[in-house]
Amino acid sequence: MWLPFSATFQRNYLVMKRAFPWSFFLGHILSGFYIIIFAYLSYFFVFKKDLSSSFSTYAGTNDYLSYVILGGLLYSFSVSLLMIASRALITELREGTLESLLLTPSSRKGYFLGYVAQGLMRVCVEFAVITSAGYFFGLHLHHINWPGVLSVLVILVAATFSQALVLGSFMLYFRDTYITQNTLFVMMGLVCSITFPASFLPDGLRWIGNIMPLTYGVDALRMVWIEGKPLVETIQLLWKMIILGLVYFPIGSFLIKRMEKYVLEKHFG
Amino acid sequence: MRILSILQAEVVKSHQHNFHNKLIYFSLLIWPALLFVTAYYSFKPFNLSSSSQLSKYMDVNQITMYLLTGYMCYIYFWSLVQSAWNMSYERQAGTLELIFLTPVPRLTVMFARAAGNMLEAVWLFTAFTLLVLLTTGHAGEIHWWNVPVAFILLSISAIVWGGFLNIVFLFSRDAGILFTIFEEPMQFFSGVRIPVLAFPLWGKIIAFFFPLTYVLEIFRDLVLNGKGLVELGEQSFILFCVLALLCTASVFLLKKAEIHAKETGNMVLF
């Protein structure tokens, strides 16, 4: 497993240095940045800091700007990660290297982990850029429980990775990335408590948020970041993320294996 | 007659290109509908009672109608950004060269392409808007006799904007970045989600550069507030100037690029 891991990591690192579509990088940063600037404009200029009383009840905080900025930050974090992991195989298919990948006896686990580990380098840079942009628009950076933030992120990465496997197999089935990924992302923007607490939504829509790791991740991150609460208080949210990850992982691995066969039968001689 | 046949050809092309795959309905209907719902709920954290700060700029009870008209006009303009973005594929695939070898007027092709793509892309969301109006019982708030005028105005402005973008994308090498620049800023700076009047000065300056800002203002006054075109004379005049400017820029750019192409044998100007 170690060999395919390091080989994939090194290859992708070279690709990133030499031929990465940097507009993706910029696009992810901007998508987080736009959420921030929109919240800033509506909070200060349209509503003049006049919040509804139900907001603090649902959100557990009165700090609207930090609430939305962390939402935008984690949304773009999650979207980047989903794109990196789910587009891995379909990119190989498009570039014509999938056949040779399937012919090698290398472990698929190592391959995916290498892919994600390298992608995380880029995601972390995006994270840092959006955080510093958020700081200028009113995200506070004191009393943060940093070890808590780190643990939430690690669990979120693992759960999102499992979700990306499922998304990736849909992409292989439809042979499409644009529509499949963006439908999921637009949906996540609605149901995952990004710019407003999901409790405002009618029940019919809210349950969709319950199957997204991001919903729990963003709530847990806000608790340890805005309020500086200890990790113990978020334990329930963390468990939900872990369980979602454990559910998605076997489904994703199974579907990916099936799709590899399907793609091979359908698109190769 | 000739213009109509070019228009028909472009509609058929766009239809065959896009509708072979059922997934197109996601981008035509599901995404805009979800964005509209998200925008609606993004207002919820704020005070929306009658004492709301928002009531300085608009009637708080009209938020649904405000967003619905906003998103519908946005879809008209946005669909044309998408269609212009596809222009680069047409250049790569070589169909553009074939079109340019035929004796059709270039300018007509560019504007007909915009019109054809717009017709194909907006009918579904327009129908969705009507459906929302009827099911939520807001249909009575609309000034229906102004609706045809408003739609004609919206379509003409969108086509002029689309033709201009087509020409810009036609002659530039990497247009993908424009996609990122136009998508969301157009949504909030041109007043789709929040009123432009509430912005600080720098926000108003950005809004000034999107033709959608002017169209939306007139569209809402016509359809929601029931004003006549005569009352909106000043705004209509400004919109007319903006459109005239876009047309002139289109003609100029197209001429320049064609001369450049004849000299160097290369379509890439920027």
Radius of gyration of CA atoms of chain A, rounded to a whole number = 19 Å
| Helix-strand makeup class of chain B | mainly alpha
- Count of DSSP helices of chain A? 12
Overall mean pLDDT of chain A stands at 89
Sheet-strand content of chain B, in percent, reads under 5%
Helix-strand category of chain A: mainly alpha
**Domains of chain B (count):** 1
Largest sheet of chain A: none
Largest sheet of chain B: none
One letter per element, helices H and strands E, the order of chain B comes to HHHHHHHHHH
Number of strands of chain A: 0
- Total domain units of chain A: 1
Oligomeric status: heterodimer
Catalogue the unreliable spans of chain A: none
Approximately what portion of the residues of chain A adopt beta-strand conformation?
A: under 5%
Overall mean confidence score, pLDDT of chain B = 84
Shape of chain B: globular
Protein model, in words:
The complex is a heterodimer of chains A (269) and B (270). With 269 residues, chain A is mainly α. Chain A has one domain. Helix content of chain A is 79%, strand content 0%. Chain A is built from 12 helices and no strands. In chain A, helix 1 (2-19) crosses helix 7 (108-136). The radius of gyration of chain A is 19 Å and the shape is elongated. The two termini of chain A are 29 Å apart. Chain B is globular and about 65 Å long. Chain B has one domain (2-11, 26-40, 57-264). Chain B has helices spanning 2-18, 24-42, 63-93, 95-101, 106-136, 147-170, 176-189, 201-208, 211-223, 233-264. The two termini of chain B are 35 Å apart. Chain B is built from 10 helices and no strands. In chain B, helix 1 crosses helix 5 (106-136), helix 5 packs across helix 6 (147-170) and helix 6 (147-170) runs antiparallel to helix 9. In chain B, 73% of the residues lie in helices and 0% in strands. With 270 residues, chain B is mainly α. The model of chain B has no long low-confidence stretch (mean pLDDT 84). The interface between A and B is large, with 36 and 36 residues. Chain B: Residues 23-257 form the ABC transmembrane type-2 domain. Chain B: Keywords: Membrane, Transmembrane, Transmembrane helix. Chain B: Pfam families: ABC2_membrane_3 (PF12698). Chain B: It is a multi-pass membrane protein. Chain B: It is found in: Membrane. Chain A: Pfam families: ABC2_membrane.
